[in-house]
Amino acid sequence: MPSVFRVRKIFRWLVNLIAKGLIKIRVTPNLATIIMLLFSILSSISLAIFRNLFYFSIFVFITGIMDGCDGAIARLTNSSTKFGGFFDSFMDRCSEFFIFLGLLIYNKEQFLWKWFDMKLIVLISFFASIMISYTRARAEVIFEGDYDIGLMARSERLFYLFITMLISFFYGYMQIFLFFFMCLVIVTLIFRTTRIYIQIKKIETLNV
Questions:
Q1: Domain residue limits, the chain
Q2: Superfamily of structural domain 7-207
Q3: Cβ 189 vs Cβ 132: under 8 Å
Q4: pLDDT digits (tens, 9 = 90+) for 7-44
Q5: For residue 6, is it left (φ>0), alpha (ψ between -120 and 50) or beta?
Q6: Residue range 73-110, pLDDT digits in tens
Q7: Which of 69, 22, 40 has the alpha carbon at shortest distance from 157?
């Protein structure tokens, strides 16, 4: 069973509203995906070059919103394609790379509690985030179904970074927030992998 706790449900009205506006100016789903990627690049630049957490947070939030707009445009215009689904998934991984690249560069000389190298924390977080999405994609290739399982799916990861980095801009604690982010994505990856394993075993048993 896919998780019922999803941030995208909260912002669905906003995504649909923006999607309808983009349709009016003839923005295609694939173009919306490219726009999403551009905002992720802007988030990386704002952090890696200008070292501004506020703009980073805003651009990450827009990235998350635009991530939903391409699918909404495809549904509203009945223009979904297999390539569009592949392109969206590919660009999602690229956008996460740029976001984490900005975090990595920003924290390249930082340590948490004098023991934890922030570069390692960011790299582990990136690896776990990518693998969360990969496990779902692979499971859906093996067996038909929705394997969107666990707390920190893509929309939740982006929303967490948006909120915590915005708080960090005003009050600090960035390294602590990123440490807990790492813990959450690792737990989500383990949970999703375990649940997918159980579900696939059940399906295999029923098909015997």
A1: 7-207
A2: CDP-alcohol phosphotransferase transmembrane (TM) domain (1.20.120.1760)
A3: yes
A4: 988 999 999 999 999 999 999 999 999 999 999 999 99
A5: beta
A6: 999 999 989 999 999 999 999 999 999 999 999 999 99
A7: 40
Whole-angstrom Cα distance, residue 83 to residue 89? Answer: 10
How many distinct helices (H) and strands (E) make up the chain?
8, 2
* Beta-strand runs (E) in 76-162: 111-112, 116-117
**Given phi > 0 = left and psi -120 to 50 = alpha, else beta, which region is 149?**
beta
Residue carrying structure tokens 């340590």? 111
- pTM recorded for the entire structure: 0.94
> What's the rounded Cα separation, in Å, for the pair 88 and 85?
5
